[in-house]
Amino acid sequence: MGPERESGPSSPGPPDRRTLRLLERRLADDPLVAGTAFDPDSTEPRVLEARLDSDLFPPSIDGARFDIRWFTTDDFTIHYVETGADGHRWECRWDRHPNPHDPRLHFHYPPDGTETAALELPSVHPLDVIATALAAVEERIDRAWDARD
């Protein structure tokens, strides 16, 4: 019998718990991050949630977070979600997984994540990928503050 699948035949495989824990340690030390949590728990994590420090955002943004999934196949999804004070969501996603409609490595553009394009990264090492996502969020925060002026 092969490795356990997370959910059905199109699943990228089981969660890579070691990598999720590595990313949790990295994010716990980042000044953008207010806290982290595993879903469903730290014993059997499937998703790492990193809540960002809301004090870094303009008042029009109530909260922001990353939902991170990493798989033993080295596929991943890093989903960034902002919630506005008006309830509006702004989101984007970095993905690496096989699918019939996009290249394996692709990006879902904001504001709603529906438009996609091929993504090129210098490295798909987990720490490099999360550094790319964090840098993009730092730029997003700067633009959100600039839009207030």
Elements, N to C (H/E): HEEEEEEEH
From the N-terminal CA to the C-terminal CA, the straight-line distance is 59 Å
Give the neighbour order of strands across the main sheet. Answer: 1-2-3-4-5-6-7
What about the largest sheet? Answer: 7 strands, antiparallel
What is the strand tally?
A: 7
How big a fraction of the residues is strand? 25-35%
Give the low-confidence spans.
1-9
Shape designation: globular
Which structural class is indicated by helix and strand composition?
Answer: alpha+beta
Mean pLDDT, all residues:
91
Rg computed from alpha carbons, rounded to a whole number of angstroms? 16 Å
| Helical fraction | 10-25%
Number of helices: 2
Pfam families: TumE
Give a verbal description of the structure.
The chain is built from 2 helices and 7 strands, in the order H-E-E-E-E-E-E-E-H. Residues 1-9 have low confidence and may be disordered. The chain has a 7-stranded antiparallel beta sheet with strand order 1-2-3-4-5-6-7, covered by helices on one side. The longest helix is centred in the C-terminal third of the chain and has 23 residues, at 126-148. A hairpin with a 4-residue loop joins strand 4 and strand 5. The protein is α+β, with helices and mostly antiparallel strands.
SSE blueprint:
Layout: H1 17-28, E1 33-39, E2 47-52, E3 61-70, E4 76-84, E5 89-96, E6 105-108, E7 116-118, H2 126-148
Antiparallel strand pairs: 1-2, 2-3, 3-4, 4-5, 5-6, 6-7
Pfam families: TumE (PF20126)
